[in-house]
Amino acid sequence: MQAPRPKAASPFLVEWGMVCLIFAVVLLCYWPALHGAILWDDPAHVPRPEIQSWSGLLRMWTDARSTQQYYPVLFSAFWFEHRLWGDDTLGYHLVNVFLHATSCCLLALILRRLWSEPTVPPPNAPPAGRTVPPGTEWFAALIFAVHPVCVESVAWITEQKNTLSLALYLVAGLAYLNFNTRRTRGSYALASAMFLFALGAKTVTTTLPAALLVVLWWKHGKLSWRRDVRPLLPWLVAALAMGLFTSWVERKVIGAEGGAFEITAPQRLLLAGRVLWFYLGKLIWPVDLMFFYPRWDMAQASLAWLGWLAASIATTAGLWILRHRTRGPLAGWLFFAGSLFPVMGFFKVYFFIFSYVNDHFQYLPCLGVIATSAAGVALLLSSAPTATRIAGRGLCGVVLCLLAWQTNRQSRLYQDNVTLFQAAIAANPDTWMGHHILGFALAKLPDRHAEAIAQFQEALRLNPEYPDAHLGLGVELAALPGRKAEAIAQYEQAVQLRPVYAEAHINLGVELAAMPGRLPEAMQHFRTALSIKPKIAEAHADLADTLLRLSGPEPEVIAEYEESLRLRPDYAEAHFGLAKAFAQLRGRNKEAIAHLEEGLSLAPDSASAHVNLANLLAAQPDRQTDALQHYEAALRLKPNFSEAHANLANLLTSLPGRLPEALTHYEMALQIDPSLSWVHRNLAIHLSQIPGREMEAVGHGEEAIRLKPDYVDAYNMLAIIYAQQGRLDRSKILWTKALQIDGNYETARKNLLRLEQMENR
C-alpha cells in the first residue's frame, strides 16, 4: 500500500510566512541602527519648534520655504510621528524599518502579478513554458530587503523620504495594475491618489508613469495609445509639474546654483554614463560603500569617460536587439536607467556639491536590476540539472546571508555623527563635508574641542570657500581664551562668502558687542540677520541687548524682547533681558521681577539671574528673605561669583546681627576680584565702626581710591573715617579733592564747610 503524500503547506500560510520572514530579516539587519542618534541632516526633517503646531502642519503644504524641501506628505508624516514620540529616535527608525519591509512585500506582490499573468511572447521567444518560477518574487524581495546599498535610506532618519515615497510608489503601481485589468474609475482614482501622495513624499517618484509604460510594453510587446498611454497622461503632466517645481526649489531655496553646479552639456552626458555604471557596480559588488564618495572633477574628465557612455549606449542597443527573444532584460535596464535619470547629472541637485553619487539615490532604481536578476537566476536554475539547481539555490542562500551580514555591519555606523563621519573620512579623507560634520559633532562633546578645531581647519583646507566651516571654526575659537579676534575673522569670512548667512551675522554681532566701542557694528549685524530671517528669536533678543546698552530701555528695546518671546516663549535669556530693561524704568520693578522669576523657572541654573532678582527683591523690605535665598542659590551655582558675595554682604549689613557674615562675604568678594573699588569702600565703612579695625578700614578706603581715582564717594567715606580718628587735615585734603573732581558734590562741600567752621571757633 502506497504511503499518503504529505499535505502541501497552505498558500495562505506560505504567503504570511514570507511576510513575517521579510520583516524579521529587515529588523535583524537594521537592529544596530534602531537606537541611533540624530544625525547630520535630521534636525531639518524632524519638525522644528516653529512648525510643531497645527498651523505649522498647514505651512508645510502652503509655504515651500517652511521645510528644507517641498515634500508636504513626508513632512506631515514626520509631524505626526513627532506628536507620537517627540524626539525619541527609536520611533523614527522603527518607521523606516517598517516601511522598508513593507516595500519588500509590495515588490513581491507586484512581481508575482506581473510574472503570473499572461505576457505576449516576443517573435523569436523560446518554446512556451519558460515562465518565471513561482516564489521568485520573494527571492527578489529578500535581495532588496538585505542589500547594503539600502542601508543609508533605511538607517538614516532623514531618508524616510526614500522609504515612505517608495512604499507609496509601489502602492500606486499595484493599484494601477489593478486598473489596467479592471478599467474602473475607482481603481484609477485610488492609483492616482497614491501617485500624488508619492510625489508629495519625494519627487524621484515622477518616474512612475514612465516605469509603468515600460512594464506595459514588456507585457504586450507594444504600447497602445488608448489603452496604455492616454490614462497616464495626467500622471505625466503632474510628474512634469512637480519635477520642474522641485528643480526650482533645489536651485532657489536650497542653493544648487553657482560654479560648483555649472558643467557643460557634453560633461553632463559623460557624467550620466559614469553614474549609471557606478550604481550598477555597487549593486553587483557592494563593497567600499561610503557616506560621501569622492566627487569627480568634471573639468578633468578624460576621454576615457567616453567608454562609460559608449558602454551604456552599446548595452541599450544590445538589449534592444535581444528584445526579439526576451524583453525582460531591456525592461529592467530601462527601469533602472530611467529611475536614475533625475540624479544622473542632467539637473542641478544640491547633494552634487559633495558628490555626484550616493547610495540613497539608487534606493528606488535598484528594483529594476534586482527583479531582472532574480528572474534570470530563477530561470537558469529551473532548467538546470537537479544537482546544479540545489547547489545554485544554496549559493543564492549564501549570497543573501553575506548581503545581510554586510547590511548589519554597515548599519552599525549610524549610531551617531562621530561614528558615522569618522568612518566616512576613513573611507574618503578628502570629504570636506565629512570633516565639517565631524567637527560639529566633536564640538558638542566635552574635552574634544581641539579635535573639533582640527576638523574644521581640515574642512577649510579642502574647501576654503565653505562658509559653514568658517562659522563652526569661529564658534570654537570664540570659546578659547585670547582667540576672539580669530573667531571674528572667521565670522567675517563666513558673511563675506555668504552675505545672507543669518547665523554668521548673529555670531559676529555677539562677539563685536563684547568689544569696546563696537556696539553699533554689532547692532547692524543683528539687524542684517533679522532682515534675512525675521523669525530668529535669539537675534531679536541680541538686538535688544545691544540697543539697551546703547540707548537705554527705549520702546524699541522692549518691543524686540517681546518679539523674541512671542517667537519663543520658553527663551529664558529674553525674559532676563526684558527684566533688565524694566528694572531701568521707573515704577516697573514688578514686571522685572516677574520676568526674572519666569526666566528662572526655565533656566534655574543662571547664577546672574538669581543675583539680578535678589537685587530687586532686596529693595523690598517684605521680600528680603527671598532675596537671601536667591543670593545663596547663585553662590551654590557659582561659588566664585564676586558680585553675589558683595551684594549678599550689602543685604546682610541691614539685618540685625548679620554683620560678621556680611564682612566675610565682602572679604570673599575681594579675594575673588580685588579690583572691586565699591566693595573696598563698603567694607571700609563697616570696618570703621568696629573697635580695633580702624586701620583696616583706612586701608580699604585708600585702595578704593587707588583703583578708581575719580571715586568721589570713596573720598568722602575715607575723609569721614579720618575725621573720626581726629586726622582732620587728611579729611580736608580728601574733601577738597572730591570737589575738584566733582564741583557739584554737595556732601563733600557741606562736610568741608563744617570742618572749616570747627577750625574757625
Distance between the termini: 149 Å
The helix-and-strand class reads mainly alpha
* Counted beta strands: 0
H/I helix tally = 36
**For the report, how would you describe the main beta sheet?**
none
- The overall pLDDT, averaged over residues, is 90
Strand fraction: under 5%
Name the assembly state. single chain
- What is the overall silhouette? elongated
Radius of gyration: 37 Å
Unreliable segments (pLDDT under 50, ≥5 consecutive)?
Answer: none
Which terms would index this structure?
761 residues; mainly alpha; Serine Threonine Protein Phosphatase 5, Tetratricopeptide repeat; 36 helices
Q: What's this model, at a glance?
A:
This protein is mainly α and 761 residues long.
Describe the protein in words:
The chain has 36 helices and no strands. By secondary structure, it is mainly alpha-helical. Among the domains are: 379 residues, no CATH class; 88 residues, Tetratricopeptide repeat domain (Serine Threonine Protein Phosphatase 5, Tetratricopeptide repeat, Alpha Horseshoe). Helix 27 packs antiparallel against helix 28. The model has no long low-confidence stretch (mean pLDDT 90).
